[in-house]
Inverse folding.
């Protein structure tokens, strides 16, 4: 699992000793199994996404992009600003007459991947829902059953070509912006099938796996080759982003730490995996006692989210910090920089 760590060119904006470090930042920290990049950054920095701005590595280390349990992250002065360096941990192996297999060390991950892997396996987004009408769909199960499971045979109408294995999906939430623009249609994975044969427009399929019952009109699509992006680093977006939490997948309205949220901004808006956004809850709407006007009170900082999958018009992000329960409609925007805070 590669973990990409960069060095920003905007050194002038790097955190200072006074304002950038956590009040409890250690001089040295030994990485342990279960750590993530976000966890380690949070031990040293007030804002974990500023990790790349203080990260320095020993050029003699063959692959500095990988951090392993047992490695030591240390803090030192770098021309008047804090820097973080890396010392490789030493694996001690006792020799014996027996030949033993030593499993390779596994590098730490940027975020808790288990929090999003299940979600990514079971969800995908299509930008053009009308195109689904041209795709294959389930028309019947074996013995005229309308519900099928693993080991059953089912029939789909449509041409299946290009492979033997396919996914079965059910239409999920239709994402629409506050302005009414269609942003994407969520497809929920139901199971996987194997193509036995194609006879004219009818495909005969064997169900190899099913998380739920497969029903008539479920969609059959080629399995998506999706590998979770592992080489991203926490950082603010390169351009100004101002959006909203569009939904909390699962049919709920609120989200807490390590839950997934859908955002109404995507690649076309400059978002990419690793981008960190601040969440602001809208202030209460009140009536001016003198004029009768409706006034919106200032918003409240509520947390941080980190994008892990970006589509063209929307993104999925993981809640990394939540001081309040995040809600559909909450604003997301670029996190406040240290320079902006110092200028106040």
């Amino acid at each position: 699992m590669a973990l990409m760590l960069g060095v920003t060119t905007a050194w002038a904006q790097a955190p200072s000793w006074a304002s950038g470090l956590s009040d409890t930042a250690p001089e040295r920290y030994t990485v342990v199994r279960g750590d993530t990049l976000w966890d380690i950054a949070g031990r040293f920095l007030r804002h974990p996404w500023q990790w790349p701005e203080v990260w320095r590595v020993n050029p003699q280390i063959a692959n500095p992009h990988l951090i392993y349990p047992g490695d030591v992250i240390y803090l030192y002065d770098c021309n008047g600003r804090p820097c973080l360096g890396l010392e490789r941990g030493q694996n001690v192996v006792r020799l014996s007459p027996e030949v033993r297999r030593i499993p390779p060390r596994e590098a730490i991950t940027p975020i808790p991947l288990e929090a999003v892997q299940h979600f990514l396996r079971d969800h995908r987004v299509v930008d053009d829902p009308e195109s689904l009408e041209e795709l294959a769909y389930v028309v019947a199960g074996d013995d005229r059953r309308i519900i099928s499971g693993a080991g059953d045979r089912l029939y789909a109408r449509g041409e299946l070509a290009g492979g033997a294995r396919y996914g079965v999906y059910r239409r999920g939430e239709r994402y629409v912006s506050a302005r009414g623009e269609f942003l994407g249609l969520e497809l929920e994975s139901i199971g996987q099938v194997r193509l036995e044969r194609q006879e004219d427009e009818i495909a005969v399929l064997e169900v190899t796996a099913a998380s739920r019952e497969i029903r008539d009109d479920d969609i059959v699509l080629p399995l998506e080759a999706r590998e979770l992006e592992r080489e991203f680093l926490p950082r603010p977006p390169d351009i100004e982003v101002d959006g909203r939490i569009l939904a909390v997948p699962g049919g709920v309205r609120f989200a807490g730490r390590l839950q997934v949220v859908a955002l109404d901004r995507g690649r076309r808006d400059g978002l990419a995996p690793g981008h960190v956004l601040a969440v602001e809850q809208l202030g209460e709407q009140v009536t001016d006692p003198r004029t009768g006007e409706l006034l919106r009170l200032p918003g409240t900082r509520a947390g941080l989210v980190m994008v892990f999958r970006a589509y063209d018009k929307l993104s999925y992000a993981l809640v990394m910090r939540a001081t309040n329960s995040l809600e559909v409609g909450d604003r997301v925007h670029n996190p406040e920089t240290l320079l902006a805070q110092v200028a106040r």
